[in-house]
Amino acid sequence: MAGVSFKGVTKIFGKDVKAVNNLSLDVRDQEFMVFVGPSGCGKTTALRMVAGLEEATGGDINIGDVRVNDVPPKDRDIAMVFQNYALYPHMSVYENISFGLKIKELKGFLWQVFNAGEAKKIKGSIDARVKEAATMLEIGHLLERKPKELSGGQRQRVALARAIVRKPKVFLMDEPLSNLDAKLRIQTRAELIRLHRSLGITTIYVTHDQVEAMTMGQRIAVMNGGVLQQCDTPEMVYRRPANKFVAGFIGAPPMNFIAGQIKDGHVDLGHLNFVLPAGHPAATMNGKKVSFGIRPESIYVKGHAPFAAAEGNTFTARVDVVELLGHDNTAYLMTGEHKILANIDATVPLHEQQDMEFCIDLDQMHIFDGDSEVAIR
Ligand SMILES: Nc1ncnc2c1ncn2[C@@H]1O[C@H](COP(=O)(O)OP(=O)(O)OP(=O)(O)O)[C@@H](O)[C@H]1O
Ligand SMILES: [Mg+2]
To answer: Same domain, yes or no, for 261 and 173?
Structure first.
């Protein structure tokens, strides 16, 4: 068992592609850590550096207390699962799962090769571990098949079995679910979490899907442009985003942003004007240019909010379009020059093309510095 730490890790491709920029982060022993961010933000590169498939340009990577920058991949005791599974097509499921194990045991095997009794024991233990992993992933009945005779979800589980059978110190997973359909993805998501709970192996899981990150990660590291933006629990990243990027990336539908300015304890958004909650640090920053953020679910139809809608947090808006989602509805609101998305409980009537009164939960507003985009709180 071991944690993984990045200390000032940078990867530059060619002359100037900074894929990972000064990354410092500790993945704790037995933790399930998710790296999330848009395409090209450096997630895969960060993972490949842990695996040793990519050499860091600068900084230190430790697995446990060992600096592994110069340790060859095969000696790092990690197992990696890729998006495309990378199974050997000519081997059966059984052979695919046991293949890595055989290489790992080869050293011990070689000097015992003349000792038939020992060889038999090792073969027996490999067999037991393959069957244990296969049972855990419910592919025990597929061991004789070839990869082409499996569904996408089954192939994916073979790839996972091949990884867990080795009992590595660290699992590295790069978008392992992205080839699965939506339903299977949700199901496998839960299986992976269960697997992590029972094995307790430190895991770094890469995805560009923020829902996957939120539902799977014990902590999530949000990256953008090679730079770590925030690393915290899903709840904290959602409720207290460190900056405007994180606020906009995490959450669906996304947070609404409106540019404005602080004026006398209010945030002045031109047509709209909201009171800052008592004691909010932005209240004293008269004249400061800010970006005001409010999540769609923090907007209510007046009279249907779980709090008293005081003057200063209400507004009138035209309901442009309503999308029915089942549990709640997404309303596209227009007020003055602003377009705002609101998630409204499905039991509350909405009238398209009519003006209605809305209110926001002031405690759920976010204020970001207009220049640095860092949260002010
Ligand atoms: N071998 C390479 N040579 C040059 N540039 C590379 C190489 N690999 C990655 N890059 C660049 O480094 C940056 C980070 O790439 P990386 O694959 O780590 O992103 P990612 O976050 O995994 O994206 P995705 O979600 O699309 O998989 C990108 O700008 C990419 O073009
Ligand atoms: Mg990638």
So the answer is: no
Q: What CATH number is given to the structural domain containing 92? A: 3.40.50.300
- CA–centroid distance, residue 147 to ligand 2 (Å): 24
**pTM for the whole structure:** 0.92
Q: How many domains does one find in the chain? A: 2
Domain limits at 266? 253-376
Rounded Cα distance between 88 and 68, Å, is 28
- Ligand 1 center–CA 19 separation, angstroms: 6
Q: What is the pLDDT of residues 115-151, one digit of tens each?
A: 566 667 767 788 888 998 898 888 999 999 999 999 8
Nearest alpha carbon to residue 23 among 11, 39, 6: 6
Which of 317, 326, 313 minimizes the C-alpha distance to 352? 317
Q: How many Cα atoms sit within 13 Å of 368 on the Cβ side?
A: 23
**Same domain, yes or no, for 324 and 339?**
yes
> What pLDDT was estimated at residue 248?
97
CATH code of the domain in which 315 resides: 2.40.50.140
Q: What residue ranges line ligand 1, CB within 6 angstroms?
A: 13-14, 17, 19, 37, 39-45, 208
Q: Which of 228, 248, 268 is the last residue of a domain?
A: 248
Q: Do 111 and 93 fall within a single domain?
A: yes
Q: Kindly report the protein residue whose alpha carbon is nearest to atom 10 of ligand 1.
A: 19
The pLDDT tens digits of the residues spanning 71-91 come to 999 899 999 998 777 899 999
Q: How far is the CA of 173 from the centre of ligand 1 (A)?
A: 16
